[in-house]
Amino acid sequence: MATAFHILFALFLFLILSHNAALQLPPSEQSAVYTLLETIDPSTNWRALYPDDLCLSGPHGLVCDLFITNSSSSSPSVHVTELNFGYVSDFSPNPACNFTSGDSTYLFTLLSSFPFLKKLFFYKCFTAHDSYTTLPLNLFSLLPSTLEELIFIENPSLTGQISLDASSLPLRRLVITGTAISGEIPVLPTTLQELVLSRNQLYGQIQPSISTCTNLKVLDLSYNSLTGSVPEQLSRLVDLLKLDLSFNLLNGRIPIQFSALKKVELLDLSYNQFTGGLPDGLGEMEGLREVYLSGNDKIGGQIPPDIWEKIGSNLIGVGFSSLGLEGNIPASMGVFLKKIHFLALDNNSLEGPVPVQFKWLESTVRQINLEKNRLHGPVPFSPEFVVQMGSKLKLNGNRGLCFVKGNFGVLPVCNETEVPHPVLFTGAGEKKTKGNLGRGKFLLGLVVILLVLDLLHL
Ligand SMILES: *[C@@H]1O[C@H](CO)[C@@H](O)[C@H](O)[C@H]1NC(C)=O
Ligand SMILES: *[C@@H]1O[C@H](CO)[C@@H](O)[C@H](O)[C@H]1NC(C)=O
Ligand SMILES: *[C@@H]1O[C@H](CO)[C@@H](O)[C@H](O)[C@H]1NC(C)=O
Ligand SMILES: *[C@@H]1O[C@H](CO)[C@@H](O)[C@H](O)[C@H]1NC(C)=O
Asked: What is the pTM of this model?
């Protein structure tokens, strides 16, 4: 709305200031917009609804811009720069579209009439239940060579392939999500900053050449059928903020070189077939706020105790469910996860106690899942915390876990012998250990004083 208004205002000013009266959308673009609208929604009489210059009074979603060229010979001109289709909301009421034809070649051929087009957006345009619309094989060569944003969101009946070369387009954003498009990931332009190809039917491997797109900030290939290993060259994408490869069929090791991805805030590799343990390199990814690796049930190995000191204080989400993890839960997780909201370690083979340091998570955590492991011993959480968390604290399926006091229904009360000594802490729990030692000394002092008093009274 704002941009449309600004453009109108700019046009208005310009018309007043200049004697150049005919500042209008070129007839070729005006007529191509009508044809395009009639193609995506034949049931509306677009020419009657918007009879005037479409840049001055056209439908929402059509964005024009004023171009002032450098050469004095040619006068300023107006061109279509954005075409947004599909009603998103009352704030973004683009022309609704309901494209049911099987072949979209004509639709995309029309786009060559817009030599200044920067953005093309389709939301819920291809949604027929009983038929598919196929993308033209040469889609990328039909699109205007000025295109910076190509966006398809929720178009389940859109099919075809996008495996061809897109590298000649100056794309910044390529978002194709929620379609039936298959094939391999296309060859991409190095200008790309955002690549979202989630929830399609893409297959094949992630090519190392993707690492030439060094401007990428968002790489989301989740919910496809991608196979093979993750190329270590992805670690050259040092500006990445989000890396989501979840729900594919990727295998091999998680590249240790990911340690170079210092800016990544969200790393989601969950539900693939990775092996080879959790990489120590995780501990170098200093920007991490959320790390989800769940559902790679053959990863195995132990939870590295040393990675949490560096990255723990930023982390708000850790998903390590169903990884085939063995060994103990490191006490360092309790010490360094100072902002954690979500922590899942369920469905592994973790054994030993829940570290007493986990008591410190109580101040921030909103969900903890330790179900289905081999943990034993007393749960370090306070009764108040357990009550407050309710079903957000999951401990079932650990035969040996017990509560120190009170009965919270799910777990038995610990036997006397299982209640730990106050001074039990080691390693990363240094600070707290001192505190408890202090208390221990205080108690000892008290006992001595009482003994002395006792003696004096004798
Ligand atoms: C505009 O024209 C001047 C002189 O003709 C030239 O030096 C300058 O590079 C041009 N600028 C652009 C953006 O084309
Ligand atoms: C889309 O068009 C088809 C026929 O062309 C019609 O059956 C269907 O109801 C339309 N859907 C919407 C959401 O308008
Ligand atoms: C638990 O992990 C096994 C593999 O280790 C997997 O087959 C199963 O689906 C997982 N269960 C849940 C509830 O995630
Ligand atoms: C506590 O001790 C009783 C008997 O000594 C034993 O049967 C029970 O399994 C123990 N409970 C736990 C949680 O270990």
From this structure: 0.84
CA atoms within 13 A on the CB side of 452: 6
Q: For residue 251, give both structure tokens.
A: 């295998």
Q: Is the CB of 98 under 6 A from ligand 2?
A: yes
245-295 residue pLDDT tens: 999 999 999 999 999 999 999 999 999 999 999 998 999 999 999 999 999
Q: Is 396 helix (H, G, I), strand (E, B) or coil?
A: coil
**Per-residue three-class SS string for 181-231:** CEECCCECCCCCCEEECCCCEEEEECCHHHHHCCCCCEEECCCCEEECECC
Do β-strands 349-352 and 326-327 pair in parallel, antiparallel, or remain unpaired? Answer: parallel
Closest CA to 355 of 291, 308, 321, 292: 308
DSSP conformational letter for 312: T
Which bound ligand lies closest to the C-alpha atom of 411? Answer: 4
Residue type, 11: L
Cα of 296 vs centre of ligand 3, distance in Å, is: 9
pLDDT tens readout for residues 300-336: 999 999 999 999 999 999 999 999 999 999 999 999 9
Instruction: Give the integer Cα–Cα distance in Å for 298 and 292.
Output: 15
Q: Residue 275 C-alpha to ligand 3 middle, in angstroms? A: 16
Q: Which ligand is nearest to the CA of 71?
A: 1
